[in-house]
């Protein structure tokens, strides 16, 4: 089909993968976020795609719908130089229709973005979609900035992750997070496997803050990422979380890391802590679903 000056059709092959990567790079350079995650959505198993090309063959719009269990997920991209002409609406409407075919159980579609903009919010709202999740991706540039000076309280000491300490890490995680909405309530075995089973997990950067009266907080890290930070309720407000992050950053920098990323829910007050420590917001990822 044709939409204005664009010719539309499914994507496939090495050339289209390179074109999607280029389009994602142009979008994220303006909107923030991480293009790698967006690109991966177009390569998922069972994905259905469409793309819009100019008369000279340049890909300036693309969308993908992939199956979930249950449901389906849609993501779209419009080149910043081609926005404001209704192309985003065309992609979204295509995605909502395509999701019905991908999700044979009719469980509904989740519209995703790795770089939420005000224009995207307005578009999603115009189709009756509501935001169900949002988190900021934040970055610390270790190539240009020193890790902050934020020492642990003197009665606490950091201990690196070991198999023998994994159970205590879990107990501290459970105490720190169980009062939060959406806490999954995983058993220790599942959380430890999820944490340490990641091939990019780095035990030497993952720390447990321990004192004479027990464990106060923890941080777990992977290559280039701070994965989780938690402080038990009795130790909150005493600088434990910030000190653990600062120590992890120092160890990451000593290990050759150039930047460190983390995710923080937009409703989590820890975002202010990370800003004070020197993190900057790279972009906002979000999910929208049909209003009920």
Automatic annotation (TrEMBL):
Give the N-acetyltransferase domain ranges: 1-153, 156-292
* InterPro entries tied to this protein: Acyl_CoA_acyltransferase (IPR016181), Bact_Acetyltransf (IPR050832), GNAT_dom (IPR000182)
Keyword vocabulary terms for this entry: Acyltransferase, Transferase
Instruction: Extract the Gene3D superfamilies matched here.
Output: 3.40.630.30
Organism superkingdom: Bacteria
Q: Write down the PROSITE patterns for this protein, in alphabetical order.
A: GNAT
The keyword Signal is assigned to this record: no
| Keyword Transferase appears in the UniProt entry | yes
What span is annotated as the signal peptide, if there is one? none
For this chain, one GO molecular function annotation is: acyltransferase activity, transferring groups other than amino-acyl groups
Instruction: Spell out the PANTHER family in the cross-references.
Output: AMINOALKYLPHOSPHONATE N-ACETYLTRANSFERASE-RELATED-RELATED
What name does the UniProt record give this protein?
Answer: N-acetyltransferase domain-containing protein
Question: What is the originating organism of this protein?
Answer: Phytohabitans flavus
């Amino acid at each position: 089909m044709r939409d204005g000056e664009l010719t539309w059709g499914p994507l496939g092959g090495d050339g289209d993968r390179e074109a999607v990567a280029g389009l994602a790079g142009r979008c994220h350079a303006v909107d923030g976020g991480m293009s790698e995650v967006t690109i991966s959505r177009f390569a998922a198993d069972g994905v259905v795609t469409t793309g819009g090309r100019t008369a000279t063959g340049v890909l300036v719009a693309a969308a993908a719908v992939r199956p979930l269990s249950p449901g389906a997920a849609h993501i779209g991209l419009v080149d910043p130089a081609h926005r404001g002409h209704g192309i985003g609406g065309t992609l979204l409407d295509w995605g909502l229709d395509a999701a019905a075919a991908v999700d044979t159980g009719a469980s509904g579609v989740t519209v995703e973005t790795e770089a939420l903009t005000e224009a995207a919010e307005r578009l999603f709202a115009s189709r009756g979609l509501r935001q169900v999740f949002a988190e900021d991706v934040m970055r610390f540039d270790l190539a240009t900035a020193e890790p902050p000076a934020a020492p642990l309280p003197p009665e606490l000491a950091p201990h690196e992750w070991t198999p023998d300490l994994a159970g205590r890490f879990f107990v501290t995680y459970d105490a720190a997070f169980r009062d939060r909405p959406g806490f999954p309530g995983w058993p220790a075995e599942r959380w430890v496997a999820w944490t340490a089973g990641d091939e990019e997990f780095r035990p030497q950067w993952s720390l447990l803050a321990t004192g004479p009266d027990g464990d106060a907080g923890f941080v777990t890290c992977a290559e280039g990422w701070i994965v989780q930070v938690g402080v038990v309720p009795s130790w909150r407000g005493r600088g434990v979380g910030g000190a653990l992050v600062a120590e992890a950053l120092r160890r990451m920098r000593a290990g050759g890391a150039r930047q460190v990323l983390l995710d923080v829910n937009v409703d989590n007050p820890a975002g202010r802590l990370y800003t004070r420590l020197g993190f900057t917001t790279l972009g906002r990822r979000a999910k929208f679903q049909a209003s009920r």
